[in-house]
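User: Quick sanity check before I run a bigger batch. Here is a single chain. Can you write out its predicted 3D structure?
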Amino acid sequence: MQRRNFFKACAGLSIAAVDITANRVEAKTKKPEKMRPQVGDLLVHYDIEEGIKPILVSELELYVEQTMAFPQDSISKIVRNGSRFNKVMVIRLDPEEMDEKTLANSVNGVVAYSAICTHQGCDVNAYLKDSKEFFCFCHLSRYDPLKQGHVTNGPAQRKLAMLPLEQIGDQLIVRKKFTRKPGPA
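Assistant: Done. Predicted structure follows.
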């Protein structure tokens, strides 16, 4: 009898696990604004006062402070700003100074990284022009955008997630999903 109850319990847990997974998939399909950037999404400025504007490659100056952006579904036009983990930093850098992997994920010197610090999830909200690094004010972590977002000064231990880009016309398009999960482990 105990063996039979054990198998019934296992079957019940399996059904519950399938149900939970189905609910997660369903939740994602119902809330596209919370989905991570998808291949083909546009990168846009999102400002409550100014509205939604595409980020144009021609407007990005070399080594000027990063632009904060969110992905926008190119078909439905829904901005994926329902999760702070979708916020990305866009900056134009000199391709000659980039390492090979950064160059492969950039387009015309433009790179995009998660704006969420890998230490404790604060916003990485500054660019240090003299050292060419992103900077998180919370705990003073620094990241090198020329070298795949590697940490140059801790306490962060993990590099930033990079968002591979392509360019169509003058607009930035998501070419692949994030290179790793954004934010802290």
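DSSP finds two helices and eleven strands in the chain.

User: Great, the batch can go ahead then.
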